[in-house]
Amino acid sequence: MAVPVKTKKLVSKTFGNYKFGFNTKSKSVYKSPKGLTQETVERISKIKNEPKFMLDFRLQAYEIFLKKQMPAWSADLSGMNFNKIHYYIRPQDKAKTDWKDVPKEIKKTFDRLGVPESERKFLAGSGAQFESEVIYHSLQKKLRDQGVIFESTDVALQKYPEFFKEYFGKIIPMTDNKFAALNSAVWSGGSFIYIPKGVHVELPLQAYFRINAENMGQFERTLIIADEDSSVHYVEGCTAPVYSTDSLHSAVVEIVVKKNARVQYTTIQNWSNNVYNLVTKRAFAYENAEMIWLDCNLGSKVTMKYPAVFLLGEHAKGEVQSLAFAGANQHQDAGAKMIHAAPNTSSKIVSKSISKAGGRATYRGLVKVTKTAKNIKSHITCDALLLDKDSRSDTYPTMDVDQENVAIAHEATVFKIGEDQLFYLMSKGLTEAESASAIVNGFAKPIVKQLPMEYAIELNRLIEMEMEGSVG
Amino acid sequence: MINILEINNLHAKVENLKILKGIDLKIKSGEIHAIMGPNGSGKSTLCNVLMGHPKYKATEGTAKLNGKNLLTLDPNERANLGVFMAFQHPIEIPGVTIGNFLRLAKNANIKATSKKAAPLSPHEFMRDLKKSIALLKTDENIITRSLNEGFSGGEKKKAEIMQMAVLEPKIALLDEIDSGLDIDALKITATAIMEIFKKTKPAILLITHYQRILNYITPNFVHIMSEGKIIKSGDRKLALEIEKHGYQKYLK
User: Fold this and answer.
1) Distance from the first to the final alpha carbon of chain B
2) Do A429 and B108 touch (CB under 8 A)?
3) What residues in B contact A427, CB-CB < 8 Å?
4) Each residue of A159-203: pLDDT tens digit?
5) Which pLDDT does position A7 carry in this prediction?
6) b/e sequence A336-361, b meaning 16+ C-beta within 10 Å
7) What is the structure's pLDDT at A469?
8) What is the pTM of this model?
9) Nearest partner of A296 among A439, A137, A461, judged by Cα
10) What residues form DSSP beta bridges with A401?
11) Which of B45, B50, B96, B103 to mutate to test the interface with A (most CBs of A within 10 A)?
């Protein structure tokens, strides 16, 4: 059905209304030249004063990165030029634990993003990464006393190398894909979290990632270990300034959820439209553990992200709930992977995408059941909402089932925002913009309502901005 | 104040198919006009053209509310002037709750009436909404339900009239509000319409196939529509005659 001209105008207007597109003039302590060489990799490790095993790890990953092909099965990455990226920018010498000590211009950036304010209000701890380094980190004393560790990954490597020897690169091997290899070679920053046995962290831990420089590559590396009977909710937010040239964000996130533990990992990603966002995320869930990825993808030029749960112990549960918003010149290629490698495991995937102004949203999913995994359940729902006829949505579900005793249900629906829906709301007095916004927010609601209230409000606001083109 | 909806020589088409071929009608506050007629005669088209559905295009003639031409306005502008349509087939909108939607609509109406008027507070709105829900003998959980989603036929129709009770329009276009209602639901819905009518004296244009609803809602005028024109007008008795003899007698 045709969308009225006014909606189209409204939709085209919104492109360029990215609220977080400002940049801050900031002096860096060190900035690597554009392009990637072995020397850059060595330099990063040296600046960070890393143990030798990490340097070896990086150099091995660098070799693999050079050999690996670009993924050809997915979004168009032909515009990406590895030689035009700065792989490491060090904004300051050491992460601060007191907000007062953060350099003024960086502080201003995060003040504008509302970061320290949220920490005071509703977080158990928070971190902030600016370019390649975490510049601020804090955790409630009560949790520190309980043995919870929440540090930048660099600091954690120095303080707790034993965790790194056991887990780092074990959940996502550097050979997994070209971008996992790249991250392994040049990683910097990210969060390290350890939750001891039986500890439940009630409030969320948050990390905020900000790219500021032009042609920046941000490669944070996050490792979360939830020990037996523990639980934690980690939230990450991301933004970047608008530049005419491209930046690259390529994170690796590894999570271990031990027996009876629960981890929720929530992403509210709102990159500017010049960022390639190519991220590998994977969790190992052991006996009776629960892993939930709640993944909201707004912004970026291309996103490729398929959070995975390897269900390795009996009765483990995996869940991916994702929401993608693809506007003009954007491709959100997102999905989920569920690997059922133990009996009585269950998984749930809910994917919702909204496309407008020629944007493209793709769901790409894999549900795999190994021979030994009996009695598994999996439920997949994919809903796409198209706001106009130029926009596009595709679904590529893959099932790889080596078992007879499984119950897998898959539903996929494509909705078009219809004349009739708009007319219905308008006929009762809502403007066209309010009507379109209400329909989109209504569509996103099943995902949004699972966020903590503060984030739900924020996400609704972001969707509203995408819809209305109002600059905050 | 007396509100007057005046329709003159209204022609309209849907996707190049001419449906309305010259409608003349004048409706005032405190009047109930029933339009009856065989299927496909253009009754629902008339409602949709007056409300401004983009698929229905007026090609000739005028429709004025208190002298202001409605046909050039967007649907929400018409709504904010006091035009209301109860849909024959209310649209389902997942995730948009009745409570939130109706508060937005009500406050848009208030704001359009006077720039100085303050919007209803959530508390005031909730009070009005609950009264309207009671009027329709509906469960209050409807407030947080998604608009028309998973509603039964009867619930959808009741929800439309509940909206009418909250929005208090000047002109109400009720498009086959009685279709799909069982006898109890019909009685509740029709009685509610009469309560609203007595309270706020709107002008009502009621589209129906059946005489049955007119046992509860007494029209001042009954019109027979056929092939896009009003071919006969009369009073309450005309509806009874139609019930007895069918439309054949009046058609050419």
Assistant:
1) 40
2) yes
3) 51-53, 75-76, 78-79, 84-85, 87
4) 999 999 999 999 999 999 999 999 999 999 999 999 999 999 998
5) 45
6) bbbbbbbbbbbbbbbbbbbbbbbbbb
7) 44
8) 0.83
9) A461
10) A369
11) B96
Alpha carbons A470 and A467: distance in angstroms, whole number: 8
Interatomic CA distance for residues A117 and A140, integer angstroms: 15
Separation CA A129–CA A132 (nearest Å): 7
Distance (Å) from the C-alpha of residue A431 to the closest C-alpha of chain B? 6
| pLDDT for B36 beyond 80 | yes
More confidently predicted of A243 and A79: A79
Residue B186's SS3 state is: helix
Contacts of residue B194, Cβ cutoff 8 Å, sequence gap at least 6 = B216, B217
Between B75, B93, B163, which is nearest A442 by CB?
A: B93
Residue with the two structure tokens 């005309």: B238
Selection from A308, A85, A99 nearest residue A186 by Cα = A85
Identify whether the C-beta of residue A263 lies closer than 8 Å to the C-beta of residue A224.
Answer: yes
Chain A residues 363-422 with a CB less than 8 Å from chain B: 419-421
Helices (H), A48-197: 52-67, 104-113, 115-122, 141-145, 153-159, 161-167, 178-186
Which amino acid is located at B151 in the chain?
F
Task: Find the residue in B nearest to A3 (Cα).
Answer: B54
Residue A202 tokens, joined: 């009630």
Mean pLDDT, chain B, whole residue set: 94
Helix H or strand E encompassing A421: helix A419-427
> Could you read off the pLDDT of B159-198 as tens digits, one per residue?
999 999 999 999 999 999 999 899 999 999 999 999 999 9
What was the pLDDT predicted at A149?
96
Is pLDDT of B100 > 90? yes
Contacts of A435 in chain B (CB under 8 A): 76
